[in-house]
């Protein structure tokens, strides 16, 4: 297995990204496009649910509390009720209200803008100190709201990375993110993140992965094993 610390690891990730872009295109999503505090709430709501239910919960919450200060003054039961469709409503309502209360107390307002000037590790350390915010949630915010070179790893990316032997089979979401992040080539964080998720949903599925249709088959030990094909590095 290629070590995550191997000197050719960045080149391997660049090759994976190039192959995925050749199949799926280069997804464009502008960093800084989402307001950080709203994105924080959205990412808390995204835990252990589908994108569709996350979006339903977020729409319901913003209909009920259109402004952040209004939301921050809400009772936990009111927030819980508004986000019930997304699951784990009690825990998520608590995380959202505690995070808003801490921001108000520590920063004097509902803003995360001060993180723009912090280094990636410092900004991540602050975000993960908030309740309900793990490495994955923090990395989504850092990548999409602040344009920092963080690399969020979800269950799809973790599965693909394990099968490609990019991370050890025992790596969890947080460890995989921290192993991959420093080696993702500059400018590839967003396309690689989004295209790996798409690959995991459409082709490298949890069961019955479609090895023969996969653009990464030539560089994937698991796919080669599954199809009985010889591995090639041809580009
Ligand atoms: S070749 Fe198979 S195991 Fe490898 S990434 Fe593609 S679908 Fe997944």
Describe it.
The protein has 2 domains: 9-28 and 152-227, Orthogonal Bundle (Endonuclease Iii, domain 2); 36-144, Orthogonal Bundle (Endonuclease III, domain 1), CATH 1.10.340.30. It contains 12 helices and no strands. The protein has helices at residues 9-24, 36-45, 51-64, 68-72, 76-82, 89-107, 120-128, 135-144, 155-163, 173-180, 189-202, 221-227. Helix 2 packs antiparallel against helix 8, helix 7 crosses helix 8 and helix 9 (155-163) crosses helix 11. The chain is globular, with a radius of gyration of 19 Å. The chain starts with 8 loop residues before the first helix and ends in an 8-residue tail after the last helix. It binds iron/sulfur cluster (SF4). Iron/sulfur cluster binds at residues 160, 163-164, 203-204, 209-211, 214, 216-217, 220, 222-223, 226. Iron/sulfur cluster binds next to helix 9 and helix 12.
SSE topology sketch:
Elements: H1 9-24, H2 36-45, H3 51-64, H4 68-72, H5 76-82, H6 89-107, H7 120-128, H8 135-144, H9 155-163, H10 173-180, H11 189-202, H12 221-227
Bound molecules: iron/sulfur cluster.
The site of iron/sulfur cluster (SF4) has 15 residues, from helix 9 and helix 12.
